[in-house]
Amino acid sequence: MNGMRSYSAYENPAPRFDLKEIKFKKSKTTKTEPKSWNFGVDSLELRRQKRLAFYRAVSAERKIKGSVKKSLKWIKHTCSKLLHGN
Fold this sequence. Notes:
Elements: H1 39-84
């Protein structure tokens, strides 16, 4: 290979950082906000709404599957009647 060289990802690994060398800055809060008592309630209400939406989606899916099964059963029964003359 004339002057062409392929490089692999293993030749030059990414630099590693030692956690002891990294200094984290402490955040200074100047103003404290009062905690909202509704946070837990809102969170619970949001979870409830998501759960109910999931239940509605599953219910609609079951209705569609049931309808398709009934339709296929009716088609099979009708075709069977035509072929066998019952």
